[in-house]
Amino acid sequence: MFNTLYVRVVVTFILVVGISLTAAFFITFSYYQERVLNELEEEMIQAGKGIIQLQKTTGQENLESYLAGIPAMTIALYSEDGEVKVFGKHTDEPLAASSDVQKVLNGGVYRVKSTEKRLLKKVTIGLPFQVEETRYALFLKPRIMERIDVIKEALITVLMYVLMIGSLLYLLAAYLLVNPIKKLTALTTKIAKGDFKQINSIKQKDEIGELVRSFNKMTTELMKLETMRKEFISNVSHDLQSPLTSIRGFAVALKENEFSKEQRDHYLTIIQKESERLAKLSENLLKLSVLESKDSLLEKETFRLDQQIRHVFLSHQPQWLEKELELDLEKVEKAEITADRLQLEQVWHNLLTNSIKYSNPCGEIKVAVREIENNIHVDFSDTGMGIPEKDLPSIFDRFYKVDKARVPSGQGSGLGLAIVKKIIDLHEGEISIESEVGAGTSIHIVLPK
After folding, report:
1. d(C-alpha 245, C-alpha 250), whole Å
2. pTM confidence score
3. Cα-flanking dihedrals φ and ψ of residue 401, to 5°?
4. DSSP state of 200
5. pLDDT tens sequence across 17-67
6. φ, ψ (nearest 5 deg) of residue 211
7. What is the pLDDT of residues 393-407, one digit of tens each?
8. Cβ(9)–Cβ(177) under 8 Å?
9. Which residues pair with 431 in a beta bridge?
10. All domains of the chain, ordered by start, with CATH?
């Protein structure tokens, strides 16, 4: 029971408030008690002196009748022969001990303080005076102390009610505070089971509301990741199954049937291409896995980026010549960069392969390289079939293929641009893409020099 946040919050509040109120009560009461008692002692001394002076002017009998009519204090008159007269409300308890009485009879003002272990101290003032040859000790005890006791009890009662009412209100406040967290806890259990439900019932704008909004954002991203995971498995299965089916089918056909040399060579060529497709897919999967598992694998060196891009274009000469594509490298300016040479070469290979693959015959591919401040900007553009706008946000996802109905089987695994994006990210660069169906595609890359 005490392991729940709700109970701990409430108990902590009650303890903190209870201790705070108690400490504040004792400190405040002690401070004001000393202050009030000091002032009261001085007033009692002045009152006692006034009584003594009155006795000298009015006589003993008039004094006693006067003392009997004072309601604000208890007065005791001790004579040196042991006679005691008490005026006002009094109890069986003497106002002063015999030793204190003797000290006052011997002269001087004497303050008698109670030794009781209680919050409110009892104060009694003793004053000496003499009538003819007889010495007297006048003791005064204010009855206001009884009223202070009542005030103290009233304060304690108020503090108890404050604690009780505050605790009840805090029970409600703690419930409202903890309830959203309990909902989040319940939903995290469901998320672990694959249920990515969001919280829509909490509209707060405080830290709890921010936590809920972050939670909902997390569930949205988790849903996307789950969808990507399922699509990844589906795509990998399809891209592996398709060539394997072709290889198995043609291998069985070659084994069980007699074909002419021309037919046999044709089937063997298909088997070879499908095998190469599987090898390329495995290579890309391995490369992407390595790129995503390490962030410090870059082996940087300084080299001419413009020369590297020209070399990549020359290595693909048979492909772009076959489709009679026109290349424009006039805007490739001299640019020196410190980066991973092999990784960036992979980027240019992948981009050029895509441009050649999806460009129409007699199309055009342009590349521009320019240095701006401490960055190098690279632009790849072609006049190919283009990419629909709805596909652009997902173009760098693994296995994502644009317009699967128009792209023939075997046209790619959908990993090329994902690898490009990861390599650019590892170099702390940026990549963006613009495209229009039927007009072509432009890719803009920014790399730190």
Report:
1. 9
2. 0.48
3. -125, 135
4. -
5. 777 777 777 777 677 666 777 777 777 777 777 777 776 676 666 666 666
6. -65, -40
7. 777 776 666 654 444
8. yes
9. 445
10. 5-149 (3.30.450), 196-293 (1.10.287.130), 295-448 (3.30.565.10)
